[in-house]
Please model this.
Amino acid sequence: MSVRLRHALPTVLLVGAVLISGCANSDSDPKADGKPTNSAPGARPSPSTVLPDGIVRPGTALPVGDGAWTVTLQGFERLPAGAVPGVPAGSSAYTARVTVAN
Model:
């Protein structure tokens, strides 16, 4: 495995982990008035179509290693509960499919 690939792969996995953890945030913490923010059901705002810098949609090829390589996140697959030792109860584990090409 080339040195450039070894440096690019952790970056891709980190981006995937950030995407997953960002989606897991909850609005159930009480606010200053003591009421949770999700106490009444309501319409959720539509998601923005603009992604933050450095975040791309799955399937988008990203050049790495001065453009010599491309890394593409193909998608995530949720693993069944208990499939990965060490994952706390109530947490989720995922696998990521990544394509690396030069």
Q: What stands out?
A: Helices lie at 3-23.
